[in-house]
Amino acid sequence: MIKVNLLKDHSIQEEKILPGDSKPGIPWYTYIYIVVIIAAIVMLAYVYNVTGNAITEAAAENQRLESDLKTMEDLRKQFVELERKKQERQGRINIIEKLLESQKGPVKLMNAIIQSIPQNQDQNIWLTSLEQTNTGVKVKGETRTPDILPDFMENLEKSDIFRSVDIEQIERRDEISNFSIICVGK
After folding, report:
1. Rounded to whole angstroms, how far apart are CA atoms 143 and 126?
2. Residue 141 forms beta bridges with which residues?
3. What are the pLDDT digits (tens) for 41-58?
């Protein structure tokens, strides 16, 4: 019996080497391709590493800036609140100053008149009305001893609020005398 192999076995093929040819193998340009591919992989790894570090640093910086922003926002809110309180208090201070300014004249006038009343135990004087006029003040009152009125008028002149002090009228009823004094302001 004869066996015939119709399938050709490629693994056992002999190559023909011509004189002047080198041994068969990997061509020289394949080595260049391999070197270029390895260099590209190394370069890509370096760029990936540098970019990853830059991204990490940027994320840390971003987180720090967000923290600073939150702190600044809290400080801004506190500042706005303090400014509002300052404005509110300044408004109150302005109102108080206006009230004090409006009270200076009447309070000073009342203090001067009260301090001008003679302080003798046996002499009594009562002020019944105080009326402001265009030129000064009109004081009305009652006393048991009309002799006290010149001292009262002299004290009013010494108060440095009035330029002149004159009696407008004195009217005697029983034991009490009603009087009216005109005080001209400076």
Report:
1. 6
2. 127, 179
3. 999 999 999 999 999 999
